[in-house]
Amino acid sequence: MQFIALTILGFVGLELFSYFVHRWLFHGVLWRVHRTHHAARKGGFELNDLFSGIFASVSILLIIFAEIPLLDSSAFPIGLGIAIYGAVYFIAHDLFTHRRFLPFNSPNKLLLTVRAAHQKHHQTAEKQGIEPFGLFIFDYAKFWRKKPSPKTKKAEIETNPTSA
User: Fold this and answer.
1) What distance in Å separates the CA atoms of residue 12 and residue 89, rounded to the nearest whole number?
2) How many CA atoms lie less than 13 Å away from 77 in the CB half-sphere?
3) Would you say residue 94 lies in a domain?
4) Which of 22, 57, 86, 162 yields a CA-CA distance of 20 to 30 A from 50?
5) Is residue 16 domain-resident?
6) pLDDT, tens digit, for every residue of 102-128?
7) How many domains are contained in the chain?
């Protein structure tokens, strides 16, 4: 039970940490790097991707240097939770919302809601930014999306194939 709780802590903890880092550091002193995420992308990668590498390295180090046996370790499940968060983030943020690398569409209401909230954040490319700063922490009632009709989905893809 402790293993599962620590894994969830790693996942939720990274989202909370990411919210605060995004709000006050990425849109603050680290804006020169993060603004590449708010600008039109040239190529497959952006300088902002360095932050994902830093977060991933924390997860990797926690997993590699975890105590044995792993089920008794605190580091391993926290690192695993961070890794799971990274995978979910990559799917929801990079592939689905920003349509990078291997983009896909989905009628899933939760994914559509996350996309709508993140697109609100991207309505400005200014340093001060606008809410929501978290990928999963925001007012879901404000952004809740119904499944798009096939006609709406086709129009969205045709008019905005690489939306922010």
Assistant:
1) 12
2) 16
3) yes
4) 162
5) yes
6) 888 999 999 999 999 898 888 877 888
7) 1
The set of residues, in sequence order, having a beta carbon less than 8 Å from that of 2 and lying 6+ positions away, is 77
Structure tokens at 74: 């605190």
Closest among 124, 163, 126, 130 to 41, alpha carbons compared: 163
- The backbone torsions φ and ψ at residue 40, rounded to the nearest 5 degrees and listed phi first, read -60, 130
CA–CA separation, 1 and 59 (whole Å): 21
Residue range(s) defining the domain that contains residue 145: 2-159
Q: Is-contact 103 118, C-beta < 8 A? A: no
- Burial label, 134 (beta-carbon count in 10 A; 0-12, 13-18, 19+): middle
In the block, tokens 């996350």 appear at 114
pLDDT digits (tens, 9 = 90+) for 60-69: 999 999 989 9
